[in-house]
Amino acid sequence: MEFNKYFQTDEDCYRYLSETKWSFENPYQCKKCGHLKYGKGKKPYSHRCCKCNYDESPTSGTMFDKLKFSLLIAFHICFKISTKKKGMSSLELSEEFGLRQKTVWEFKWKIQQAMTSSRMSQLEGKVQVDEFLIGEYEEGKVGRSGDSKKKLVIVGLEILEDKKGVGRAYAQVIEHASSKEFRPFFETYISNDATVITDAWKGYLPLKKDYPNLEQIPSEKGKGMQQLHIHIMNIQGWLRGIHHHCSKERMQGYLDEYHFRYNRRAMMGSIFDLLIKRMVQSEPKRLIKSKIKTVL
Ligand SMILES: [Zn+2]
């Protein structure tokens, strides 16, 4: 209700983008000449450089540039994806807003890029790590027939000692279950001081040099790492529910989307603002056309 009260028109959204783009922490500076003073531009909330007259809109150079639908709808989609517990698939969104599914799917790709981890805060304390496979879940194909199309994912989850709860988590698509593939994930997401728990797989052994507190335990059908396996089942269930046929790049996008929400589940009041801020601060990567096979 608060969202709907605040954002009623496109103009409300332009104002918000303008305030996010040019703020106290990030004041205006002309992109062309670097001048710091500006006047009103042609469009509402645009800034025009006082020196070279370059007119910059709140959307230019952001992920809201060249939208195929109104800015208000874009805000609604960002709100739904960031605040609904399981997000929303592009099919659901296309039905709700009367858009082509592919259009939503392309916009969602931008949102997922903004949901990529900042890689600023590593998992600490006790961290369970394991790999799992994500299949394509094609109808009629059960069992091992589709194994070659499955993707391997490594995932790490913080285990909180005091209340037996769980903390933050990250996941990354990898090629093989080898230390060479594990290492970049460890270096990016896990603190060297962490007590890392893995199964007995030899691929983790070489990491002990940099992670002296790494402990390998026999897996016993997942009993040793219950919290992590619940987390993995939740990811798989979520993907199975709404997504099919993912390229490697897109699969990472879905994992990033999942963990962006998951790691902020206690901060739902500010998650939308953070998403918009990220989308304003970075330009979208181009979608490689040959990789567009995915729908939903
Ligand atoms: Zn200028």
SSE layout:
Layout lengths: L1 H5 L3 H12 L16 E3 L6 E3 L5 E2 L14 H13 L6 H8 L3 H14 L11 E9 L16 E9 L6 E9 L4 H11 L5 E4 L16 E2 L9 H17 L5 H15 L8 H11 L15
Parallel strand pairs: 4-7, 7-8
Antiparallel strand pairs: 1-2, 2-3, 4-5, 5-6
Helix pairs in contact: 3-9, 4-5, 5-8, 5-9
Bound molecules: zinc ion.
Zinc ion binds next to loops.
Detailed description of the structure:
With 296 residues, this protein is of the alpha/beta class. The protein has two domains: 2-114, no CATH class; 126-263, Nucleotidyltransferase, domain 5. Helices cover 36% and strands 14% of the residues. It has nine helices and eight strands. The strands form two sheets. A five-stranded mixed β-sheet has the order 6-5-4-7-8, sandwiched between helices. Helix 4 crosses helix 5 and helix 5 (101-114) packs across helix 9 (271-281). The longest helix has 17 residues, at 226-242. Residues 137-147 and 289-296 have low confidence and may be disordered. Zinc ion is lined by residues 30, 32-33, 35, 49, 51-52, 54.
